[in-house]
Amino acid sequence: MRALSELTLGGEADAVPKARRFTAKSLAAEPDHLVEDAEQVVSELVTNAILHGCEPVTLRILRGEHALRLEVEDGGRTLPVVGRSSTDSMTGRGLSLVATLASGWGVEESSAGKVVWAELAEQPTPLEPTPATGLDISREPLLHPEVDGPHDT
After folding, report:
1. What is the pLDDT of residues 102-116, one digit of tens each?
2. Whole-prediction pTM value?
3. Rounded to an integer, what distance in angstroms lies between the CA atom of residue 8 and that of residue 145?
4. Which helix (H) or strand (E) holds 100?
5. Omega of the bond prior to 56 within 30 degrees of 0, cis?
6. What are phi and psi of 25, to 5 degrees?
7. Strand bridging mode 114-121 / 67-74
8. How far apart are CA 80 and CA 109, in angstroms?
9. In the list 43, 75, 88, 102, which could disulfide-bond 54, CB 3.0-4.6 Å?
10. Mind spelling out the 3-state secondary structure of 23-76?
11. CA dist., res. 45 & res. 16, Å (int)
12. 3-class DSSP assignment, residue 96
């Protein structure tokens, strides 16, 4: 893999939007679907690093032959945990989303703390259960007439 770009962030309030903009700019030559997925993954990984890790937070974007690798390093040693989805919780879905979008993800120890990484394949893949989370993306309609009431079609 070859490094495309790197950005170091602190605890500034606009760190996540800054990381998204940096990602989009760094990947301007890539297909739209890949840029959009990369922005979402970066948002989740940087948010986790800021909330649960230690500064500084470093975002790295690397390019392989058939995939992008997004790495977020922080000074914390606590491993990330895939949370249980709950309608009552404002957080806890980030790594499940990363697992859904990425062809693979993981955590590695670094001299500064840890690196959480995700790889995005060039070609989009259909949504299926992932070994990391066991998520199954339902093919059921989002509206439920018994709950939402009747809708004109």
Report:
1. 999 999 999 999 999
2. 0.75
3. 48
4. helix 94-101
5. yes
6. -65, -40
7. antiparallel
8. 12
9. 75
10. HHHHCCCCCHHHHHHHHHHHHHHHHHHHHHCCCCEEEEEEECCCEEEEEEEECC
11. 9
12. helix
